Automatic annotation (TrEMBL):
The protein's name in its UniProt record: Putative thioredoxin M-type
Keyword field: Disulfide bond, Electron transport, Redox-active center, Transit peptide, Transport
Pfam families for this protein: Thioredoxin (PF00085)
Cellular component aspect of the GO annotation: cytoplasm
Superkingdom as given in the UniProt entry: Eukaryota
Disulfide bond listed as a keyword: yes
Thioredoxin domain ranges (all copies): 42-178
Amino acid sequence: MALEACFQVSTMAHSTIAGKLSLPACKTPKIAAFSFSASASRLSADFHPRLRAPSKNTRAARVVCEAKNVVAEVLEANTNNWDSLVLKSKLVVLVDFWAPWCGPCRMIEPVIEQIAKDYAGQVICVKVSTDDSPNLANQFGIRSIPTVLISKDGDKKETIVGAVPASTLTNSLTKYLG
């Protein structure tokens, strides 16, 4: 899911040198070999156990991918960057209010990091230290931590209090996606 959200095919580069085709290593036994047929003028994907060099009538093709504006990690927010990270975001934003001394906050941290990776390109995950940014915590009425806010189009949609399972957070997020 995250891979589809992160990458898009943007252009194709052609070369007559067979060594130009380089694909990442694949853990599965079959690797896709892409070839461009000059005579047929079409792109085809043949699946072979290994890449084969194109014949004289074909040219190797490289698919050039560009990453979209995707964040796959939890960003730190404060009063200085709150507007740009949360209020002006075109994506759903998950905001984690936490403190370094809070045990339950440390328990939920890996869950939020995984959500940031799984929903990259769809959700931005942000954490706010209540010790460093008490004004933001007061503004949103944060009385206990961890507290997770879900925001869309700059509006607070949902509040989740406590160290909850990943399924609780993902179920809440999916309501606001798409």
